[in-house]
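Subject — a protein and its fold
Encoding — discrete vocabulary of local shapes:
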Amino acid sequence: MSDVLGDLINLDLMARYGPRFLDGVLVTLQLVAISFILGGLIAVPVALARLSKSRLLRALAYCYVYFFRGTPLLAQVFLVYYGAGQLRDAFEAVGLWALFRDAWFCALLTFTLNTAAYQAEILRGGIQAVPGGQSEAAFALGLPRWLAFVRVVLPQALVTALRPLGNELILMIKASAIVSLITIYDVMGVTRLAFARSFDFQVYLWAAALYLILVEGVRRLWVVAERRLTRHLKPA
């Protein structure tokens, strides 16, 4: 059995780079989780701006969403990471260069802005799916407009948006592989390092397996969360 296992898996390579792969998994999860949460916070005002009666707010929100959804994420990462160097003097003048010279911060910023655009459109659809009578009922009870939105409209919109938000999270996990191109040692970054030193194609199979495990784990957790959050909607 050990001989067969040795033929299928390079145990020496696994012992050498296994811990690095675990570190890469942690980096990937941190990047995706933090940017997804921050993006969700940004998405709410952007979605509201998209639905605003103000032409200016609608136009600004539309341009933001259009840019980040209409251009490749890789181009956005390069634009922030390499473009920041072109503006070094300006960033130093305001004390921000220490952040923008860090690849991790550039990746986090780009992923946050990118997912915020997608989440804003998902949330906008969820808000529009809430029947108008819900808001009218809240107003009839004397709730202020902002409280009616927070207590009545937003929770129902989030329930509608749960499934698309889960898909967005999974897409982010897979898209996170591109940050390896700006010297971040996530799963793919460690894979590229291991391959450059060993020339063993097996490491890419390990990376594929790790991404499958991450995606399946997130999918299962999201299904459980969705069932718990929507259990009141199911017939008795």
Observations:
- The chain is about 80% helix and 0% strand.
